Amino acid sequence: MSQDKKGGIKRRDFLKIIGVAGGTAAVTAGCSNPAEQLIPYVIPPEGIIPGVPNFYASTCRECPAGCGIVVKNREGRAIKVEGNPKNPINMGGSCAEAQAMLQGLYNPDRIRSPLLRNDLGRLEPLGWDQAQKTLADKIQAVRSKGGSGKIVFLSDHIEGTLGNLISDWMSALGGQHLTYEVYSYEPLKEANRIVFGIDKIPTYNIDKTKYLLSFGADFLETWLSPTLYSRQFSEMHSYKDGSLGKFVYVDPRAGLTGVN
User: How many CA atoms lie less than 13 Å away from 36 in the CB half-sphere?
Assistant: First the structure.
């Protein structure tokens, strides 16, 4: 940088420095996060202490296994999901789907309101009040023509209180509740009923076996409850009794279970 005879900075160089500094500040400001308002609670809701998280026990619905989870909540916002150590299915463990469920909850492209298909076949958002009225009118129109059997509630597999509520509602309307699952275990349930007389999906104590033979049952990745069977499989492969259980897997695909 050029200097005058007295050791100072020339006016032209000084203006160059100011221009570069100003441009840098403008670029930095343009790349920063948008300003947000921080509004504190005047009167916090009951049960909420700002800065102190609350934990709620719940059930994961990312797959039919229904593992127990604990949701960490800060100021009414869920921020973390972990397995519930007191749940007999997963005993504190959690899979990748459970860890990623918050991504679906806060996905900006998620469905935020009821949708109604227009005459062009496109889905358009609908207000909740209008959606309830439209649904009630459609149900009433079908029932008035004696077509109650055409009323169908289609969903994935739902159990517990919500499942009972849906079943009672469909029974009152004369309709039916149809469920769809990507991984259907009805054949397994029927086989259990025929062989053992128990009309339920069976569970297996893999941790207590010495020789495990699996024909396409990818229990470490998709089959029944991967979190439960992953834990049991690791116990089967331990030397807790002085021996190591043997595992044979028969399947054309080398999935996660096959490579183990």
Answer: 5
CA–CA gap between residue 193 and residue 207 (Å, rounded):
24
Model confidence over 18-61: pLDDT tens digits?
Answer: 665 655 545 555 566 667 666 666 777 777 788 889 999 998 88
Query: Considering Cα of 201, then 207, then 211, then 215, what sign does the dihedral take?
Result: positive
| H/E stretch holding 137 | helix 128-144
| Model pLDDT for residues 131-154, shown as the tens digit of each residue | 999 999 999 998 888 776 789 999
Strand ranges, E, within the chain: 54-59, 68-74, 77-83, 115-117, 123-125, 152-155, 176-179, 211-215, 246-250
Residue 91 inside a domain? The answer is yes
User: How many Å apart are CA 35 and CA 175, to the nearest integer?
Assistant: 51
Beta bridge partners of 9: 3
Residue numbers of the domain that contains 85: 54-105
Determine the 3-state secondary structure of 83 from DSSP.
Answer: strand
Q: What are phi and psi of 212, to 5 degrees?
A: -115, 120
Q: With H, G, I as helix, E, B as strand and everything else as coil, classify residue 225.
A: coil
> How many domains does the chain divide into?
3
